[in-house]
User: Which sequence fits this backbone?
C-alpha cells in the first residue's frame, strides 16, 4: 500500500465520518430549524403546570411556533412562571390566551396559544394575561367523586 | 490463611502499581505527542489501520443493529398503536447508547487488539530497544501516533455506526413494514436534541476512544517480550477495554441523562 493510497482512503474515511455527524445533526437532530430564526420572549403564569417541561413545544392552531425556554416559581403569588420563546415571524395579539394541553391521551404536554382580538401585538418581555392551567387527573377524579356524592345526596333527599 | 492474605496483598499492590505505571505512561505519552502532530503522516497511517480498516465491520454491524431495532421496536410499539414513534426509538437508542458502546466494543476487538499485538511484537523482536539505541523515543515514534490515530478514528466510527443504524431502522420500518415516512422523521427530529443527545453521544465516543486506545498501546508496550506474553496482552486488551467501555458508559450516562432531562 503506497502513501497516496493511504492518504486517499483516510481522506474518504474522514469525509464520510464527518458526513455521518452532519447527517445526525441536521436530519436526525434537526439543528437547522432551531438556531436560525429570531425569537422574542413572553412569560405566562399558571396556577399549575402539570408535567410541562423545558423545551416543550408552544403551538398555535397545531403549528409549532416556539418553545418553553424556562420554568420558574414565583414565591410571591405562588404561581408557576413559564418563559416562552416565540419565533419572530409569528406575531400574536396582546390578549392571546395560553393553555397547557396534552397531545393525545398519554402524550407530552405543550402550551397552546389562542389568538385574541387586540390590535396591539405582543412585544418582547410582555406577559400573557389569560392562562389556563394543566388538567391534573387527581383533581378531576376528586371533582367527579364529590359531584357524584352530591348527586347521591340530592336523589336521597328527593325521595 | 496467611498465604491467602499474602497473595491478596501482592495482587492488590501489583494492581495499584500497574495503575500508577499506566497513569505515568499516559502522562509521558501526552507530553511526547508532538511528533504525532508535527509528522502528521505517521498518524494518518495509523488512522488508516485503526479507522479505515474497521469501516466494513462498523458499517455492516450498524446496519444490522438498526434493522433489528426497527423490527423489535415496531413489534412492541404497534401494540400500543404508536408505531410512528419507531424513528424516535431507533434514533435515541443508537445516538445515546448503542452507537458509541457497540462501535467501541467492535473498535476494541478489531483495532485495539491489532495495536497491542503490533507494539507487543515490536517489543518482543527488540525493535523498540533498537529505536532507543538510535536515540529515537519509541513512545513518541511508535506509541503516540497509534494513540492519536485511534482517538481520532473512534468518534467518526461511532457516528457512522449511528447513521448506518438509523438508515437500517428506516429500511425496515419505512421501506419494509410501511411506517409513515413523514411521521418517522418528524417525530425523530422533534425528540432528538442536538446538544443533549447527539453531542453527548459524541463525547461518549471520544471518551471510549481514549480509553480503548490507551489500554491497547499500554498493554502492547507493557507486554512480556515473548509469544505467550503478546497473546496474553492482546486478550487483556479486549477484556479490559470492553469492561472499561461498559463501566464508563454507566458513569457517563448517569452524569449526562439524569436530572431535569
Assistant:
Amino acid at each position: 500500500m503506497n502513501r497516496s493510497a493511504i492518504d486517499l482512503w483516510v481522506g474518504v474515511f474522514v469525509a464520510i465520518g464527518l458526513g455521518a455527524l452532519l447527517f445526525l445533526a441536521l436530519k436526525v437532530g434537526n439543528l437547522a430549524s432551531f438556531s436560525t430564526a429570531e425569537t422574542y420572549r413572553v412569560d405566562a403564569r399558571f396556577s399549575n403546570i402539570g408535567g410541562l417541561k423545558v423545551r416543550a413545544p408552544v403551538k398555535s392552531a397545531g403549528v409549532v411556533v416556539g418553545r418553553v425556554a424556562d420554568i420558574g416559581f414565583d414565591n410571591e403569588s405562588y404561581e408557576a412562571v413559564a418563559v416562552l420563546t416565540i419565533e419572530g415571524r409569528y406575531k400574536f395579539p396582546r390578549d392571546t390566551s395560553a393553555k397547557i394541553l396534552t397531545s393525545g391521551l398519554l402524550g407530552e404536554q405543550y402550551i397552546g396559544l389562542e389568538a385574541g382580538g387586540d390590535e396591539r401585538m405582543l412585544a418582547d418581555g410582555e406577559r400573557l394575561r389569560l392562562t389556563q392551567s394543566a388538567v391534573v387527573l387527581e383533581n378531576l377524579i376528586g371533582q367527579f367523586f364529590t359531584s357524584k356524592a352530591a348527586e347521591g345526596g340530592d336523589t336521597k333527599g328527593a325521595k | 490463611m496467611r498465604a491467602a492474605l499474602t497473595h491478596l496483598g501482592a495482587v492488590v499492590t501489583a494492581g495499584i502499581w500497574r495503575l500508577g505505571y499506566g497513569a505515568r505512561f499516559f502522562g509521558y505519552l501526552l507530553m511526547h505527542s508532538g511528533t504525532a502532530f508535527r509528522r502528521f503522516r505517521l498518524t494518518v497511517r495509523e488512522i488508516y489501520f485503526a479507522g479505515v480498516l474497521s469501516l466494513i465491520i462498523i458499517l455492516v454491524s450498524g446496519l444490522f443493529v438498526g434493522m433489528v431495532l426497527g423490527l423489535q421496536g415496531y413489534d412492541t410499539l404497534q401494540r400500543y398503536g404508536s408505531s410512528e414513534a419507531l424513528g424516535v426509538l431507533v434514533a435515541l437508542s443508537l445516538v445515546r447508547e448503542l452507537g458509541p458502546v457497540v462501535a467501541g466494543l467492535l473498535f476494541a476487538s478489531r483495532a485495539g487488539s491489532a495495536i497491542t499485538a503490533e507494539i507487543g511484537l515490536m517489543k518482543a523482536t527488540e525493535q523498540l530497544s533498537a529505536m532507543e539505541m538510535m536515540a529515537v523515543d519509541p513512545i513518541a515514534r511508535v506509541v503516540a501516533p497509534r494513540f492519536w490515530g485511534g482517538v481520532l478514528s473512534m468518534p467518526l466510527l461511532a457516528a457512522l455506526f449511528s447513521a448506518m443504524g438509523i438508515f437500517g431502522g428506516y429500511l425496515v420500518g419505512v421501506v419494509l413494514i410501511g411506517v409513515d415516512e413523514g411521521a418517522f422523521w418528524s417525530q425523530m427530529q422533534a425528540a432528538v436534541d442536538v446538544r443533549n443527545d447527539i453531542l453527548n453521544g459524541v463525547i461518549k465516543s471520544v471518551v471510549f476512544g481514549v480509553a480503548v486506545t490507551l489500554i491497547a498501546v499500554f498493554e502492547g508496550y507493557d507486554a512480556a517480550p515473548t509469544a505467550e506474553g503478546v497473546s496474553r496482552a492482546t486478550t487483556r486488551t479486549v477484556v479490559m477495554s470492553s469492561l472499561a467501555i461498559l463501566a464508563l458508559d454507566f458513569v457517563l450516562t448517569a452524569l449526562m441523562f439524569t436530572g431535569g432531562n
Chain A has three helices and eight strands. Residues 23 and 29 of chain A are 9 Å apart (CA to CA). Chain A has a mean pLDDT of 83. The first helix of chain A runs from residue 3 to 28.
